[in-house]
Design brief:
This protein has about 325 residues and is α/β, with parallel strands linked by helices. It contains three helices and 23 strands. The protein has a 23-stranded mixed β-sheet that branches. The longest helix has 29 residues. The chain is flat, with a radius of gyration of 33 Å.
Length: about 325
């Protein structure tokens, strides 16, 4: 009818909408849909790669374990030499012991249980006693590109007056109750030394070093990236970390000691009755002191003395990018 001219009915509007939608689908460029398909393809490829890596890793996750033991009579002083290509090492001294007891737990990983058992039996670990030295050597096979390989965890019980040289490429080193000199080198996992009375030489690569209770002549410790912690120690000390904090509670003695961190903070706790000369330098940080030091403590580099400087040991403290805190150590009297 004439009164509907110029206005659209609902049916006409739906028809126009369908025609517009179809026309638009035919005439609009296809770039956006092509881009979506490319993204979906890329995501699919990434998911497939991750799945392959996961399956490869899982295929080498079946573990087999083999435990081997050895014991050597050592009536006199003994030196332990450990060279391990992987695995944790626990060395503990026991009073009254006249033997060296070794327990090696070997681990191997493979695609099947049968293959893992065959591989772990074939792992080679050697030990021998020669001229007062017990030598332990573990060389694992080449690790697979994906998944786990093989390693050996060692527990070694020795007389308390033993000394040791320990090296592992990957694994925790823990030494306790040893009176002789200790040299230990590790990577990634911590080096922990407790209750020792001999010279300590500790070197780490990207790992923490902890010394708890050491009364030997000297401690030398360094790590490329990690924290250094010394609790209840005495004697000369030289310790340095490229990146990490240093915590020291003890009594430096026997000459010139040095604690250095290049990227970290330095926390030092000293006996108030110690005789010390302290050189402190914090290039970009503060130095806080809660001890009665004698000297000009202003600025971020100074030298001061604690008690009698004429008989004092020397302690150098350096925090290149961090702060230094010096506090009193209230030791309990037995």
């Amino acid at each position: 009818s004439m009164h509907n001219i110029g206005r659209s009915t609902p049916g006409i509007e739906k028809h126009r909408a369908r025609r517009f939608s179809a026309t638009t689908a035919r005439t609009l460029p296809h770039g956006s849909s092509c881009e979506q398909r490319r993204w979906k393809l890329a995501l699919g490829i990434c998911a497939l790669i991750l799945l392959v890596l996961l399956l490869a890793a899982c295929s080498s996750s079946i573990e087999a374990v083999d435990v081997r033991t050895a014991e050597f009579d050592v009536p006199g002083e003994v030196e332990i030499i450990v060279d391990s290509g992987g695995g944790g090492i626990l060395l503990r001294g026991e009073a009254g012991r006249t033997t060296v007891s070794i327990t090696a737990t070997l681990h191997s990983f493979a695609e099947t249980d049968e293959l893992a058992k065959e591989q772990v039996v074939d792992l080679a670990i050697e030990w021998e006693l020669e001229d007062g030295r017990v030598m332990i050597d573990f060389v694992p096979p080449q690790a697979p590109a994906i998944g786990k390989g093989a390693f050996a965890d060692l527990e070694i019980l020795v007389p308390v007056d033993a000394s040791a040289t320990i090296t592992t490429d990957d694994g925790r080193i823990e030494v306790s109750s040893i009176g002789g000199a200790i040299a230990a080198s590790g990577r990634d996992d911590p080096i922990v030394v407790r209750d020792t009375a001999g010279f300590l030489l500790l070197n780490g690569i990207e790992c923490d070093i902890v010394v708890d209770g050491a009364g030997g002549e000297a401690i030398f410790a360094s790590t490329t990236e990690g924290s250094l912690s010394f609790r209840d120690v005495s004697g000369l000390i030289e310790a340095e970390t490229q990146e990490g904090d240093i915590q020291y509670t003890g009594l430096p003695s026997g000459g010139s000691s040095r604690l250095v961190t290049h990227e970290g903070d330095l926390y030092v706790v000293l006996p108030p009755d110690a005789d010390l000369v302290i050189d402190a330098s914090a290039r970009h940080g503060l130095i806080t002191v809660d001890l009665p030091l004698d000297g000009d403590l202003t600025g971020n580099a100074w030298t001061a003395s604690l008690n009698d400087s004429s008989v004092a040991a020397h302690l150098e403290l350096v925090a290149t990018e961090g702060m230094i805190s010096i506090e009193p150590w209230e030791r309990s009297v037995p």
